[in-house]
User: Fold this.
Amino acid sequence: MARKEVENSTSLGVSVDVRQWVCVDGNEAAARVAYALSEVIAIYPITPASPMGEFADDWATAGKQNLWGQVPDVIEMQSEAGAAGTLHGALQKGALATTFTASQGLLLMVPNMFKIAGELTPAVVHVAARTLATHALSIFGDHSDVMHARSTGWAMLAANSVQEAHDFALVAHAATLKTRVPFLHFFDGFRTSHELAKIAPLAAEDMAALIDLDALVEFRLRGMNPDAPDVRGTAQNPDVYFQGREASNPYYSAVPGIVQATMDALAERTGRSYSLVEYHGAPDAERVIVMMGSGVGAAREAVDNLVQAGERVGLLTVRLYRPFPAQQLVSALPPSVRSIAVLDRTKEPGAIGEPLYLDVRAALDEAMDDPEPAFGQSPRVIGGRYGLSSKEFTPAMAKAVLDELSAERPKRHFTVGIFDDVTSLSLAWDRDFRPPRAAGEVQAVFFGLGSDGTVGANKNSVKIIVDETGAFVQGYFVYDSKKSGAMTVSHLRFGPQPINSTYLVNDADFVACHHFDLLNRVDVLDLAKDGATFLLNSTYGPEKIWDQLPGDVRRQLQDKHINFWVIDGDRIAHEAQLGNRINTVMQTCFFALSEVMASDRAIAQIKAAVTKAYGKRGHTIVERNFAAIDGALANLARVEIPSVRAEAGPIGTPIPGSAPDFVRRVTSVIMAGKGDLLPVSALPADGRFPSATTRFEKRGIAAEIPLWDPDICIDCGKCASVCPHATIRMKVFAPEALAGAPGGFLSKPFRSKDLTGHLLTIQVDPDDCTGCGVCVDVCPAKSKTEVKHKSINMEPAPLHRDREREHWDFFESIPELDRSLLPHDSVKGAQVLQPLFEFSGACSGCGETPYLKLASQLFGDRMLVANATGCSSIYGGNLPTTPWSQNAEGRGPAWGNSLFEDNAEFGLGIRLGLEAQQRRARLLLLSLAASVGADLAASVLEADETGQDEEEAIFAQRARVAELDEQLRQLAAGSDGAVASLARQLIPLTGALVRKSVWIIGGDGWAYDIGFGGLDHVLSSGRNVNILVLDTEVYSNTGGQASKATQRGAMAKFAAAGKESAKKDLGAVARAYGNVYVAQISMGANDLQATKALLEAEAYPGTSLVIAYSTCIAHGIDMSKSMSHQKDAVQSGYWPLYRFHPSDAAAGHPFKLDSKTPTVSLADFTATEARYATLARTHPEQAARLATLAQADVTERWRYYEQLAAMQRTVPGAGADAEPEVGSDAGYRYDEEVK
Amino acid sequence: MAGPGAVDLTTTYLGLRLSSPIVASASPVTREVDGSKALADAGVGAIVLPSLFEEEIVAEEVGLAFALEAGSEHFAEALDYFPDTPTFSTAADRYLELLEQTKKAVDVPVIASLNASSIGGWSRYAKLLADAGADALELNVYRVPTDPELNAAQVEQIDLALVSSVCAGVSLPVAVKLSPYYSSMASFAARVLAAGAAGLVLFNRFYQPDLDLDTMDVVPRVELSRSWELRLPMRWIAILRPQLGAGPSLAATSGIHTGTDVVKALAVGADVAMMTSAILRSGPAHVIAVESELRRWLSDREYISVSELRGSVSQATSDDAGAFERANYLKTLHSWTTVDLNPVPGLD
Assistant:
């Protein structure tokens, strides 16, 4: 191993450090080893494991070799199931193969995992353990996924830290070859996978030393080989299967010994010693915690502290979980143990206990059954759950568990870390219990905005500190649930001793707030210790800042005796032409104030890091950052804190009293960042939450907001149409509605041939606008005297926010226009309708959300949405608040997310459920016809779904159903028991008698890849569902990995050298069925076509597929020009617009090409997007080759579509008539439709 | 009479010995190595690469940096959106690559061209180009002085400082391409040379933006030159050549389309005639026709070399010294009218 002497001259007091350390996170730590020891790596993105695949792909693209001098073949598959299948195949051929996954992804691998283990195949899967989606999805960490895999026959090895993730990756790869048992190596998602730490890396020689070459040769020889053929995967019968299953027992029996031997070999080379189970604590402990995973760090701190105080307590860490090392576990426990608490980071509802608890209990019971029992008296064992979904697990919680073990009658089953006021299972813990930290340790916490580069700078600071001081470090980063205006909190620890505090900083020496407005949203000084240093980025200088602070912040500054510094980082960054990237300014100030190391050395290192990060792309950004760094210290100023006691003043925006009870009781607490305090009773047990809650989360994140000039406005509705957050709206109303309008409230006469005498107002919601500027980009109305002045113009938010807020409130109070007054098949006609999707947390300028908003305007009051996991399910359903909304009658989209892979089927199921309800309701109504009135019953029954083909008909049916409901309520309360029973049955079903609209929505990752099989099946079903694919051409939510929607020549993750193959023509697949309505749309290119396509798709009584071009931050574009890019994409033929209407009459032309012959070259379009432009700068020859092919793709597709447009319908029944009768009385008849 | 092939076309430009006075000026053709090769094969004496624009470099670096970083470290599921890019070719890298490839592909001198907007920018890239093997540099002083606080002298000072800084930073000969809009061209030309330039390229044709009346947007619009546009550089070369002496190089550019255009440029004192528009219109092979016409013209008149012709009709050497000055205007006017308008003394 290369060694480096690191001179120590720091206040952190690190002694001379002789190892070559690296600073990596858990994912990189594991991936480095996995890559070095694999030949085939099958990958698929899933949080939080995606970075492992990304590292592997980046390294392979860069030609990095594995231990044997080969570049592994890294292949992205269509799903984790696909990755597992590929893994299985590669292994059966005798190639070393691996994959990375988490959560539901691991579940998709399970079928293959049984096979791989059943065939005794050496393999390793590295898992960043993550919560499974149950009542809710969670991307965070616990063991529910790996515990699901415990019966697959894979060995399971738990790493508890970044160093262990690195070391155990090797142990797993080495041991699997020797044991022939496949290994699932796991570590905690986020807490370990994303924690940045200083580790000692394994050298190639270390890895080579542990790999048994004989075992490798034998593995090769077992591979499938026509020169020595055999048969595997036979089907066996009752006579032999059972025996065959038992034949593998010796291999499992050998695993613990081989793993320990491998660990010992590792220790010999590295000095890092590990055991299958490891005891830590008092040798004579009576109370012991048993657990595995990152939580042992916190538990260890508690145990150390209590032992020091004379308590007889200990901690047993389980590292090998399968095969369960029962004997080693019993031996490792001190004989003095009297009571044991087993902590599981998972929940198995309905089980007598969680898996580790049951295993430990069984192991102890068996040990007590031995002729010579291990303990004089059976220890009492209790089991508890902790840390689900990365819930904090602190030393105080571990102490609470140990305290519980002292109780006379401890809770046999408990939880810790929450307050369970429903089943009273939770333990109370002392929040003030904080073991003293190691001498010399420094804690720092930084509040930043995602866009200001804070996290990147902090990751860089951590690396600088490691390199320069040799200190041990820990960087952990907490992100927002919103993608725009996102807040980030960085938790950093540095110290001379290894840092195992696997919980957030709670006693910070240094607190930085990188954005002044955050002071009004978050209690940033809550984490500051007495005498801490506080750095604030603010435009207010040291003299003026005090008066601008919220009262409670002033009080904390006084009460905690805080050293308070300010810097105008925005000005310095602006002067250095860095926009809002204040990161290097704030980083420089941190080093100057924290005294972690000498400022001049720190500055030199910051500059070196800037050069490393940007230097490869030229000098400009480097020099600008240098200017910002040099400008930082001169502008750092200390603030004198007045001695006069500050008046209190709350932090945070109050929730209006008019908000629903749930919002005030629960949502508001989560919004305030205090969700940890909510008791179990506050949360819905089934995961159902109220919709329409984003309106209560006013974030005010826009620096500039659009203002309307009615004098120029041409009433086109484009601004409202493209607004990704539904914050700019168009309302048409009678002049009387202006009564009571605040001064300056703007309106103009509404131009319409259908509706006269009305006024129009376009109003922005200043607190929900993200300031993306897309509305201004699309506004076609320019001033005649000054063309840069449009009808919508961005203006500084602080100057206008108060007035616009008042106007918005009034605007909201104006009643919505009667939907029947204007036709909806125009942009303007659609935009006067109320959006029922609003204020989502999507990225600023998001290209997806305008389509959702449009659909919600057209059909929202009767929509059922099945939403695939992905961006749209995150901005659509991530707490605390959700954007799917309701109208004044309380109607709105009913939204559900099942999974990533099954969304088409999920949506189809919703449709089938709806139709089942319709059938049942009609039968019941027939039975009750006499009771409710024959005329009413007949009129309701007559208006089936196809009869409700216009909104007016739907509204009429809704009125009839309301009348029916009233009748039913009376009948249900009536004396005729049989009738009352029927009425009670019908009441919950009458809603189904009003036409509903089922939408299956998701991104291209779902539609083109993981969910394609199901989507294809639904397309073939002929059922009346509407499928909307928000096609960003990459996996946007997981960070821009290539999908089969990615176009040829685009650079994306997993396609770093440009995607080789052409984009799949999903529309062609759907059109091939002949009876599917298919449209390809692009709002920025043709908003009218997009509107019509959605209307047609919804009206079409069979299956519809609308593929919507969605600009994305992963395209590397200026998102304020999002719609211009959409337009350019269409003009270049990159994204042709069309509608394929299967029900067109015989001799009609079902395929309508809605865009014009390309007028610009593909190269002219792609040059404006970083996903293409970057490839030309990283792989110029490849880029040129792919660009030529991509232009050919475009040209050929265009020619093909032109021919398709000329195609005449020859089979009159080719439309929905071809669909089978499905027993629905709402079935669609082609011959009726064409009349 | 000597045959056309026997005429000596060699000339000296910026201290470089060129086989022909026809030089391919910066254009999309010289942006491709194959284009330069075709031009060299067609007989150009030197090749000027398209300008390396400092603004373009900065815009690309800033644009890509922001685009690649946008959205990073915002959201736990997507900490970034693009794969790591270990190697990256910037606009400057690509230019240097073009320069190196062009040098390899042709055996005529290759002149790199710079268009920068700050002193730091000029110097940095000038040095890079020199290191990459350019035979000479052409410094494109492209400036539209819009600041009302800057007077003409200050504008000139700024430009002279740029010239000095580039010339001081490289050992290569530097030609400065000027616009015709300096108040006192003769004085300024001399001062540019004094600042270290080895020659002048006259003149830069500014692309003037146009309006799109459908969108009311200001749009770029490129118009190729016509032969008549040679007259402006011709006049100034005629005036400057005797003033500056034989030392500094002078290149005529704008409106060189034919062999006779080249003849005119040389006759008034240019060392080389630079072509762009004609090559764009007719392709690199057009150079063959131009050279052939030049040779024919020279041999028909029994010139044995272009050096004989060079400067033979400058202001100093023509038989009417005032012809290139103001009186020339009247004569020109006269030539445009059907009326026999004799010069009238005192008519200004």
About this structure: Chain B touches chain A at residues 57-58, 60-92, 94, 124, 216-217 (CB under 8 Å). The first strand of chain B starts at residue 11 and ends at 13.
